[in-house]
Amino acid sequence: MTPNDAALADLFARTAVHSWKLHLDRLDTMFAAFTDEELQQEIAPGKNRVFYLLGHLAAVHDRMLPLLRLGPRRHEDLDQDFLINPDKAGPDRVSAPALRQAWTDVNTALTAAIEALSARDWLLRHEAISDDDFANEPLRNRLSVLLSRMTHAQFHAGQIRLVVPGR
Amino acid sequence: MTPNDAALADLFARTAVHSWKLHLDRLDTMFAAFTDEELQQEIAPGKNRVFYLLGHLAAVHDRMLPLLRLGPRRHEDLDQDFLINPDKAGPDRVSAPALRQAWTDVNTALTAAIEALSARDWLLRHEAISDDDFANEPLRNRLSVLLSRMTHAQFHAGQIRLVVPGR
User: Fold this and answer.
1) Can you tell me the ipTM of this complex?
2) CB contact under 8 A, B11 and A139
3) What is the pTM of this model?
4) Which of A60, A75, B23, B34 is deepest in the core (most CB within 10 A)?
5) In contact, A15 and B147? CB cutoff 8 Å
6) Spatial distance between the Cα atoms of A55 and A49, rounded to a whole number of angstroms
């Protein structure tokens, strides 16, 4: 039985979304291995704390909501401390439990919206490219954002892994 | 103008392959920033050397050739030192220039073969799953391997970034 072209495009989308969810699950497992106190640990001497990377990833994923045109942001309050400022620029203004909650909240909303996209939706432009530019650069679509954020998350996962407790 | 379903599937494949190539380019740039001597540096105290991760990534990408059913391996000789053994298990048996060459050679062969795949090809099974199992688990296709190896490479890129010279 050979799938037709519509089924092919659908399988592509499902494979990409499945991969996104697998990678989020791995990060969840990793963060869950740290106590709130252990989140304060630096990934290497003088480098970012795990706490900062948790906030950073929550903020970046929150920005995916408007970037993928899936809805408004939910945690814009994270930007100053976790995107604009480097780590340790000032005292922490959010608690570890609140930060964990933001991470879960963002990913729950994002993944639900992502799962509702059709194959065709994935190949539409993302918010940061104009219709005119997109006409010439069709690869700058929503899927490219998903792939780039998936690898971004794993980039930091590789760093966090260096200090996961119990290894 | 709305693309038809065949064009959609083709766009999916092109977006994924473009992303793969972008990520390889970034790794190439990163490795090029290290002198052969600097490759000996550990990513953090007591952790893997950049040299080991270069060999590890070359070996993992080399294994993608048979795993994606694109041809035989080219550098099976890397497995013992960079996949089976941990780092610093014995003296280095390959020079930095030879290791850089293997990395380039593997990725050149792999990317050429990948670019020749049609959208339909991407959704066929990979070598590590049987026809019977694949009938029930169609997401375990070649595309899933590409995405998983792309994030694997970025996982280690995040670690290497910690010691890239000049940062």
Assistant:
1) 0.94
2) yes
3) 0.95
4) A75
5) yes
6) 10
